[in-house]
Amino acid sequence: MSRPSAPKDRATESVAGASLLERSDGVHLYSFDHPSLGDRSYLLIDEPSGTAAVIDPQRELQPYLDAARRHRSRITYALETHLHNDFVSGARRLAVEHRATVVASNAADLSFPHRGVSGGDTIELGSIRIKVLATPGHTHEHVSYLVPGDDPLLFSGGALLPGGAARIDLFGADESKVLAGLAHRTIEELLALDARVRVLATHSGGSFCSTGAHGDPTTTIEQERHHNRFAGLPDATAFLDAATRDVPPVPTYYPRVRARNRQGELRAPTAARELQPIGLAELMRHGPLTVIDTRAAAEYAQGHIRGALAIGLNGAFAPWAGWLVDESALIALVVADAHRGQEATTALGAVGLDDVAGYVVGIDSERVQTVSVRRLPAGELRRGDELVFVDTRWEHEWLAGHIPGALHASPDVIARDGLPALAGERRPIAVHCASDYRSAISVSLLERAGVADLIHVADGLAGWQAADGPVEASR
User: Looking at residue 159, what DSSP letter applies?
Assistant: First the structure.
């Protein structure tokens, strides 16, 4: 096949939030951003043959189907780079509902019909030949998909990310050592590819699966040779040290999602449903209900349902929800508008939270009991012994610098263990993170635990430092 000399790299139109990078010879490439997960998936279309392939499909299929139909094409392949830990895959649904062939590594040991591949195999999508590369490291079964030609593409999954790679520590310390050696070799092999290869990764800088990655949507092998944090490391030991330094804990929902993807998900995600305030009040009266307030932290602080979890949509909403909410919980959402209700419901489905009763737009204080929390910039906080500071950042952030005397507990620790040091505390509790996202989550968790007199620090540690507040380091 004659390939175009270069992509136009121009977002020409959108289909359900997807960017179309226009290409010649009837070949089209869509990227689909999933911001609450920090992930991307892709659709490669060979228009002359009317066939298309989705790479690492999310559970919500309609955006892919709409894009393929725009080009009178049918999705014939779902190409999985690895067993995903952070989101529920839509690959099996594509196979059952739309007759696509699922392609995955032989080592993935999928429990449903698929085409198993190994490094060196090829897949034909019309006139496009896709080469399978064995790229273990992020996981044992990881493969990448190379489209050779004058404008070569690499769908790298988590094997190589812009600036970094996906994590190797998802399965414990012993496996991390093994995966470090595999990842070190994989990155050496990928960086030896043609310098022109454009790298299209699944994970990005906003993903809990990534290490050292930044938010750029694409990169090239040439760029990664010079700027990837793992390029040029001498051995697996150096790789292990670099890859496991300054990373957050592994979200607790990952194992259950990985197991779900091995079995293959057949259910469609829950459809968004708007609740009337009276309906929410009835749900709250008649049984256990987890309310997630997805609004901005300032709106939550002004008035929220007592006991609601504050997990904002403008952040890592899906991973935190998966981390903090039980898989069997009945969930109701508080959102800023109906569009956000749809977005939040889809995001919950992406991490396997399916029992969503619906959403309400805003808070009706006449129907449900509401409370507020003080939200102040750091410059307005009183100093000295009158406050107890709670720092909710990750441990490596804390060690690099924190308010003297502050307590340290990230949201996952508060959810798991509470904060016993606050038992009987009568002083105001000022909760902060780097900005206000994790601290909003933590404020809501502490409120649920019965901690009184909470203050949400609106501008985080940066605001404290800007107000000349003292900071000390522990390393």
Answer: S
pTM (global) more than 0.85: yes
| CA 164/CA 50 separation, integer angstroms | 35
Answer yes or no: are the C-beta atoms of 107 and 84 closer than 8 Å: no
Is residue 338 within 8 A of residue 294, CB to CB? The reply is: no
Contact 94, 114 (CB under 8 A): no
C-beta separation of 330 from 279 below 8 A: no
- Is 331:325 a contact under the CB 8 Å cutoff? yes
Question: How confident is the model at residue 287, as a pLDDT?
Answer: 82
263-303: pLDDT as tens digits: 999 999 999 999 998 899 999 998 899 999 999 999 999 99
- Token digits for 236? 């697996």
Task: Convert 292-310 to b/e letters by CB count within 10 Å (16 or more is b).
Answer: bbbbbbebbbeebbeebbb
Using alpha carbons only, how large is the chain's radius of gyration in Å? 23
User: Distance between CA atoms of 415 and 6, rounded to whole angstroms?
Assistant: 49
Nearest to 153 by CA among 9, 26, 272: 9
| DSSP assignment of 33-62 | EETTTTEEEEEEEEGGGTEEEEES-BS--H
- For the cut 70, the answer to whether the pLDDT of residue 3 exceeds it is no
